[in-house]
């Protein structure tokens, strides 16, 4: 396109790959976390218990094992047309791990909402999805904001684990850079620069979370 060669997913790497994995993990995992939190609050025991079993099962596994399963083991159990690219399988595994932890954070925020809020909405004749979208979730997300920002920070730092399944994110690219003979002397500079990049992104996420907390606390008054 426009005279440029196509670059497949297997050739992606560096900071761009780190950001792509982080953003797509959060975009997929956050809505899934809300769904899991709502299912775990279901009044039907078989739905709430099954969802709780799924969440606790995923939370009991290390992220490395989930990434390895989705990248290496899963293709043996799926037909060829359903396997997809390894990068997207890894993102799905990371999103599942993110959603399991975030679901408990959202559920904790929901438990912090006074029961009278939802009862008053029911008394006004509001339907379930109206109660959830207009009453429950806005207050739950405000309660869960600090833990949510912390989970985003953890997910950004955990993108470095994809090196285990063969992807050259920013840390692996730095290792490859000073691994050449002419740059072997600069390993301190490489790691210092990578640490600075992580600090910039993590510190920015933390400050943005603090800004949201202040804004929401102002809106309460």
Can you tell me about this structure?
The chain has 221 residues and is an all-alpha fold. It has helices at 14-40, 45-59, 63-77, 80-83, 86-111, 115-123, 128-143, 145-158, 170-179, 187-220; one strand spanning 168-169. It is a multi-pass membrane protein. This is Amino acid ABC transporter permease. It is found in: Cell inner membrane; Cell membrane. InterPro entries: AA_ABC_transptr_permease_3TM, ArtM/GltK/GlnP/TcyL/YhdX-like, MetI-like, MetI-like_sf.
Brief sketch in words of this structure:
The chain is mainly alpha-helical and 221 residues long. 77% of the residues lie in helices and 1% in strands. The protein has a single domain (12-220), classed as MetI-like fold (Orthogonal Bundle).
CATH topology category name: MetI-like fold
Overall geometry comes to: globular
Report the total helices: 10
Distance between the termini: 53 Å
Element pattern in H and E = HHHHHHHHEHH
Report on the biggest sheet: none
Number of domains: 1
What class do helices, strands and sheet pairing give?
mainly alpha
How big is the Rg?
A: 21 Å
Topology diagram in text:
Layout (H helix, E strand, L loop, with lengths): L13 H27 L4 H15 L3 H15 L2 H4 L2 H26 L3 H9 L4 H16 L1 H14 L9 E2 H10 L7 H34 L1
Helix pairs in contact: 1-2, 1-5, 1-9, 2-5, 3-5, 5-7, 5-8, 6-7, 8-10, 9-10
Relevant terms:
transmembrane helix; MetI-like fold; transmembrane; MetI-like; 10 helices; 221 residues; transport; 77% helix; AA_ABC_transptr_permease_3TM; mainly alpha
């Amino acid at each position: 396109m426009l005279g440029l060669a196509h670059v497949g997913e297997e050739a992606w790497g560096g900071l761009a790959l780190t950001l792509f994995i982080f953003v797509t993990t959060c975009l997929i995992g956050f809505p899934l976390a809300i769904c899991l939190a709502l299912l775990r609050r279901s009044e039907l025991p078989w739905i709430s218990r099954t969802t709780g079993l799924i969440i606790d099962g995923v939370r009991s596994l290390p992220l490395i094992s989930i990434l390895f399963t989705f990248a290496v083991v899963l293709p043996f159990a799926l037909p060829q047309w359903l396997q997809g690219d390894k990068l997207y399988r890894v993102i799905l595994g990371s999103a599942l791990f993110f959603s399991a932890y975030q679901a408990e954070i959202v559920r904790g925020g929901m438990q912090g909402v006074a029961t009278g809020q939802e009862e008053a909405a029911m008394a006004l004749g509001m339907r379930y999805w109206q109660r959830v979208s207009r009453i429950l979730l806005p207050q739950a997300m405000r309660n869960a904001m600090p833990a949510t920002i912390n989970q985003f920070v953890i997910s950004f730092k955990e993108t470095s684990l994809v090196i285990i399944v063969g992807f050259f994110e920013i840390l692996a690219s730095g290792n490859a850079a000073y691994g050449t003979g002419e740059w072997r002397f600069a390993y301190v500079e490489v790691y210092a620069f990578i640490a600075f990049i992580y600090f910039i992104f993590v510190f920015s996420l933390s400050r943005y979370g603090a800004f949201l907390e202040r804004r929401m606390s102002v809106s309460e008054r």
